[in-house]
Amino acid sequence: MTTYTWNVTALYTEAVATESDYVVIANYTVVGIDDTYSAELSNIARFSTASVSPFIPYAELTEAIVIDWIQQELGPDGVSNLEACIQGQIDSQINPPTVPVNTPLPWATV
């Protein structure tokens, strides 16, 4: 069974209304680990002032809060799709796909 770990790697802020450190972009990485196999994807999430409410002062943010924002922004289908992509990478490591071989044409002579 694959375990997924979400990590926030960077936050970008803007001054919005009366707040000086309003998070508008979060860089994140999701790592999937299944026994000895692992895969990861990195991406960014963009937030509007309406999507991150109520305002939480920057100094009071935790990684768990921002991960929740990211997952809300993605929605349940987005989270499932992202984790499915990671699972696909792991499955390809466990059972590598066959690679087609360019075989000479049987009627061609050298």
Short précis:
This protein has one helix at residues 63-94; strands at 3-16, 19-34, 37-46.
Characteristic key phrases:
110 residues; three-stranded antiparallel β-sheet
Topology, pairings included?
Blueprint: E1 3-16, E2 19-34, E3 37-46, H1 63-94
Antiparallel strand pairs: 1-2, 2-3
Would you kindly provide a written description of the structure presented here, covering whatever features stand out?
The chain is α+β, with helices and mostly antiparallel strands. The chain has one helix at 63-94; strands at residues 3-16, 19-34, 37-46. The chain has one domain (3-94). It contains 1 helix and 3 strands; from the N terminus they run βββα. Strands 1-2-3 form a 3-stranded antiparallel beta sheet. A hairpin with a 2-residue loop joins strand 2 (19-34) and strand 3. The longest helix has 32 residues, at 63-94. The radius of gyration is 21 Å and the shape is elongated.
Overall mean pLDDT stands at 91
Q: Stretches where pLDDT falls below 50 for ≥5 residues?
A: none
Biggest sheet, open or closed, and with what strands and sense? 3 strands, antiparallel
Query: Which structural class best describes the helix and strand composition?
Result: alpha+beta
Our estimate of the beta-strand percent is: 35-45%
Give the terminus-to-terminus CA distance.
51 Å
Helix fraction bin:
25-40%
The figure for the number of domains is 1
Please count the helical segments: 1
Give me the side-by-side strand order of the main sheet. Answer: 1-2-3
What is the β-strand count? 3
Shape: elongated
Q: How large is the radius of gyration?
A: 21 Å
The run of helices and strands is EEEH
